[in-house]
Specification:
The protein folds into two domains: 109 residues, no CATH class; 131 residues, no CATH class. It has a five-stranded mixed beta barrel. Strand 6 and strand 7 form a beta hairpin. The protein is elongated. Helix content is 21%, strand content 34%. The chain has 250 residues and is α+β, with helices and mostly antiparallel strands.
Length: 250
């Protein structure tokens, strides 16, 4: 944990109302952002996780709900303007620290687009923002969103397909390795059908529950993400989480 503060970023926000100007600057430990094609334009942010006082977090919450622009800085990068866009959601909590009388306030804000990546949401969508580029996690989240008939053993094959079709794009991240997956249910079902015919992947010999082993390094701090709470590992700091789901009929 030595020099852990050097791994944090910052979010700065300025709000002007008549003759009053409010300026805040809070620490940020997680970020998922998507740079725009025009380098001079603002960056689109899908997720920020920040800590601060009651006043700071309250002001930032107002800024998110108003689709305001923030100044964001991460280690090794110059500050840039960014916004979570309209209809972003905020989730607030408290963290008790030894030696402090008052808890530190914690806020996680997600863009409307990232909220649509939860299981069953916007199944006609063509973009899926994910917080991790680990192959099994990518396949699991895409399959959960679109209801795809898959098994964990297909993870590496699926990543190769994404790369071959140029459907996998790395995003800007802090404390995570986010990616953007492009494609919809019809596209992915087409890939599965062709691969099964070609013998690149195989249907399991036995029907039954499927066990997914997913790294929990990023998911632990965001236990209250929509649709994810029930899959959190019970022990803090657990190396991985397992879930058994019924094997879908092919």
């Amino acid at each position: 944990m030595k020099n852990a503060h050097d791994r944090f970023g910052f979010v700065a926000f300025t709000k002007r109302v008549k003759d009053t100007t409010t300026q805040i600057r809070v620490h940020m430990d997680r970020l998922i952002a998507e740079p725009v094609k025009d380098a001079r334009g603002p960056v689109g942010v899908h997720l920020i996780s920040v800590f601060g006082s009651d006043v700071e977090i309250g002001a930032l919450w107002v800024g998110v709900t108003e689709a305001a622009f923030f100044q964001i800085r991460i280690p090794g990068s110059a500050p840039f303007a960014a916004s979570l866009g309209p209809e972003a959601n905020c989730y607030r909590g408290s963290v008790m620290l030894p030696g402090r009388k008052r808890p530190v306030r914690h806020l996680v804000a997600l863009s409307a687009e990232m909220l649509k990546t939860r299981p069953g949401a916007d199944r006609d969508g063509n973009r899926t923002v994910l917080c991790d580029d680990e192959p099994t996690f990518v396949l699991y989240r895409v399959a959960r969103r679109f209801g795809l008939p898959v098994v964990p053993e297909w993870a590496l094959w699926f990543m190769r397909e994404l790369e071959q079709h140029k459907a996998l794009q790395p995003l800007l991240g802090l404390g995570c390795s986010p990616v953007l997956v492009e494609g919809n249910k019809e596209t992915f079902l087409g890939w599965i059908g062709k691969a099964l015919k070609a013998g690149s992947i195989r249907i399991p010999a036995h029907n039954g529950p499927i066990s997914w082993k997913l790294a929990s390094n990023f998911r632990e701090p965001l236990a209250f993400l929509p649709g994810e709470t029930e899959r959190m590992p019970p022990e803090a700091g657990a190396a991985e989480a397992s879930e058994e789901v019924p094997c879908r009929s092919f």
